[in-house]
Design goal:
Elements: H1 2-17, H2 37-48, H3 51-58, H4 61-69, H5 76-82, H6 100-111, H7 119-124, H8 133-161, H9 166-173, H10 180-209, H11 218-234, H12 245-266, H13 300-310, H14 317-323, H15 329-358, H16 375-406, H17 416-436, H18 440-469, H19 476-506
Length: 508
């Protein structure tokens, strides 16, 4: 009873978290996931030129708003027209226009995405009894707090160095010669996120279409979706019309959380429940004897890796700092603390509801566990599928153009046919990989354990250390924090090694 009351409170808090006062949706960054979403939308802008951020900040509020929300920076025409512009590394503080409530909404939306739907399987990786939720929620809060610290650390580095992009902050503190390290990390993270998108689309569309076409396999479904939906969208020259799907993604997550709560508290999937016999045995609720004690086993590393992907928004930290009105460090830290607290609440709620409903049978994508006859959850599957379809081209273009930038290949010098061939080849490769890899939770766990931990724990600590070296007489608090950030980096490295090993073992 106490557990259900707690979940009810978290469920209410999760819904409220998406509705701050005076929110202007036009300034929302076009994001959908963690998990995935964070580096996805901004990666393209960061790698091509810092011009985009400085241009937005120097422009009028209306122009800045359009650049931020319409995703027009992904248009080839827009990129080509500014590719040779100067790239200032820093701006004076206080030029942002976003309020704290707007920033909180945008950051929560950037963090909370479709990746949260894999967290129940992370709990199932180490536990099978309901009590496994207790250490899982504690871990969600711990990793969320550490992620918030790293996010805050990046903003403070930007404050010290007056940088407005991740790349500029790295160059100012660590050096220009090694700037390729975070650049490649973000590009690979974006590729992994796009791959995860393909796998989620395969699951959701197969669940929706499989009822109408029984003989259609998941691979066939993904091939059809890629050929007839994703490819035409990824070949578009201007993606600004896809920006509203960002808001749909957020609304879809709110709806899914509420629907999962209704199904858990209503007992629809419990023994003798309305949908208890609709599913194959592997997806039916199953509970065992391994509870909280399971958190002491190495299998807990799988959930840690997933969380490192889920909380990923750190490549955007400089932008959130720069665009905050009156961007003092205390105001920025208020945004960070509030946003991550709300995200922790949402993650804990959805992970708990999914696991408490299905236990050790929790699928790598929890929506797979719900019956095809369940109209309430069917609407959730449809909303998630539509939102990801709309956001997929933004993620894919970020991956494709990131690779081009790192290889120093300018789009302005490429023929349209060449770019289209590259698009088809990369999309085909991602589709094949999504068909071969058995579980999306593996992709998220492995990417989080490696690239996610680097971007969340290790890189911010290195930048902060570099910034402190330029201060002649650091305070005792700063000296202490140097040690704290170093500990965070070591902890992230340990999480990464253990998580990567366990993620690989989980599919072997």
């Amino acid at each position: 009873m106490i557990l259900k009351f707690t979940l009810s409170s978290l469920l209410l808090g999760s819904a409220v978290a998406f509705a701050p006062a005076k929110y202007d949706w036009r300034v929302a960054a076009p994001q959908i996931s963690t998990a995935f979403q964070s580096p996805l939308q901004q990666h393209r802008r960061q790698h091509n030129s810092d011009y985009f951020q400085s241009h937005a900040l120097h422009s009028s509020p209306s122009k800045s708003t359009r650049l931020y929300s319409d995703a027009s920076y992904l248009s080839d025409k827009h990129i080509a027209s500014h590719q040779e512009e100067p790239t200032p590394k820093s701006l004076s503080s206080g030029t942002g226009t976003a309020t704290i409530s707007q920033e909180v909404f945008n950051l929560v939306k950037a963090i909370v995405g479709a990746g949260v739907l894999t967290l129940p399987s992370g709990i199932a990786a180490f536990g099978s009894a309901p009590s496994a939720v207790v250490p899982a929620v504690a871990l969600i809060a711990l990793v969320g707090s550490l992620s918030a610290y790293g996010f805050g650390l990046i903003g403070r580095v930007c404050s010290l160095t007056r940088s407005t992009s991740y790349k500029a902050a790295w160059e100012e503190t660590v050096g220009t010669k090694s700037a390729w390290i975070p650049a490649w990390s973000v590009t690979l993270k974006t590729v992994c996120a796009t791959l995860a998108y393909s796998m989620i689309l395969a699951d959701t569309f197969h669940a929706l279409i499989g009822v109408l076409v029984p003989g259609m396999t998941k691979s066939m479904t993904l091939a059809a979706v890629t050929t007839f939906i994703l490819l035409p969208l990824c070949l578009l020259r201007n993606l600004s019309s896809l920006a509203p799907f960002s808001l749909l993604g957020s609304l879809g997550m709110v709806y899914t959380t509420i629907a999962m709560g209704i199904r858990y508290f209503g007992g629809a999937y419990a023994k003798n429940g309305v949908f208890s016999n609709d599913l194959p045995k592997a997806l039916r609720p199953a509970f065992g004897n391994v509870g909280a004690a399971g958190a002491l086993t190495p299998q807990i590393a799988i959930l840690i890796g997933m969380l490192s992907t889920a909380y990923m928004a750190h490549f955007n930290a400089p932008k959130f700092y720069a665009e905050l009105k009156n961007n003092t460090v205390p105001r920025y830290m208020t945004v960070v603390a509030t946003s991550f607290a709300a995200s922790i609440s949402i993650f804990a709620t959805m992970a708990s509801l999914g696991f408490l409903t299905f236990g050790s049978a929790s699928s790598g994508l929890i929506l797979n566990n719900y019956s095809p006859r369940d109209t309430l959850m069917g609407l959730s599957k449809a909303a998630v599928a539509i939102a990801i379809v709309g956001s997929y081209p933004l993620a894919f273009v970020g991956a494709r153009d990131g690779v081009l930038d790192l290889l120093k290949l300018k789009q302005s010098n490429m023929k349209a046919i060449t770019l289209n061939i590259l698009t088809v080849a990369m999309l085909g490769g991602l589709t094949v990989a999504a068909s071969v890899i058995p579980d999306v939770s593996f992709v998220l766990a492995f990417a989080g354990a490696t690239l996610g931990n680097a971007l969340i724990y290790i890189y911010p600590a290195l930048m902060f250390r570099g910034a402190m070296k330029k201060i002649a007489n650091p305070t005792k608090l700063q000296q202490f924090e140097l040690k704290a950030s170093a500990f965070s980096a070591i902890l992230g490295l340990g999480f990464g090694i253990m998580g990567a090993v366990k993620a690989v073992q989980s599919i072997m």
